[in-house]
Specification:
This protein is an alpha+beta fold. Helix content is about 30%, strand content about 25%. Helix 2 packs across helix 5. It is globular. About 30% of the residues are buried. The model has no long low-confidence stretch (mean pLDDT about 95).
């Protein structure tokens, strides 16, 4: 994430115009032995998509409008098992997120990033795609695509791997938490930032339930929760 943020801030792919995110995994039946995971509020939008929305906000900026659809047709539980949403950002970037916890697929962060290889089978495939006016970036493989010289769909496009620092993600998070508690570091994120991510996620749920486009700038429900202003 640090490497991706740095590349985008430095303008290596130009203005980000579109992004596609896949969060498609198969949760085994044993996962649903806990009753709350079968009930409203315990589904993949609040459990999984919220992380993707947090990532989008971190890399690309604030969300202003939301459209979404969801279904529980595969498992038939009270809660959704699959969903999709389209987000419009303040910058004009449009983002599509595809989500399912009943899809037999490697295209999810836990499988592709290899952060916990004891719990998740590691498969190094890209799952997040960011397209800009000067290039494109995929994650978690950190592949940056760009032209040499003139841009155009008829021109050769080349890829390279942007450099990143290897490390234990969970250990790094814990070290930062300890440093914040000790007063030797400022938090990388805030409660207000987390609240805004939650507001967008709740807007996705509302948009899926109503079929209506939601504007977080004007909808009092989500402005009060900390949505974009």
């Amino acid at each position: 994430m640090r490497a991706a943020k740095k590349a985008i801030v430095e303008g290596r792919i130009g203005n980000v115009v579109a992004a596609n995110v896949m969060c498609l995994a198969y949760k085994p039946e044993a996962y649903f032995s806990e009753p709350w995971r079968r009930r409203a509020g315990g589904g993949p939008i609040l459990i999984n998509m919220i992380h993707e929305i947090d990532l989008i906000r971190h890399l690309c900026g604030e969300v202003v409008t939301v459209q979404a659809a969801s279904t529980n047709r595969t498992r038939g539980y009270e809660v959704e098992d699959s969903a999709a949403c389209t987000l419009e950002l303040e910058s004009g970037t449009v983002v599509n997120i595809s989500l399912s916890d009943t899809a037999a697929s490697p295209w999810n962060w836990d499988t592709a990033a290899g952060e916990d290889r004891q719990l998740f089978d590691y498969r190094p495939v890209p799952t997040h795609f960011f397209a800009g006016t000067d290039g494109a970036l995929s994650l978690p493989d950190c592949a940056l695509w760009s032209y040499v010289g003139e841009k155009g769909r008829d021109r050769p496009i080349h890829d390279q791997r942007i450099s990143m620092e290897e490390g234990n993600v969970y250990a790094n998070q814990l070290r930062h938490f300890v440093d914040v508690v000790r007063g030797t570091a400022e938090p990388l994120t805030s409660a207000q930032d987390a609240t805004q991510t939650l507001a967008v996620t709740l807007a996705v749920m509302a948009a899926a339930q109503t079929g209506q486009k939601i504007d977080l700038r004007t909808d009092a429900r989500f402005k009060a929760a900390g949505g974009a202003t």
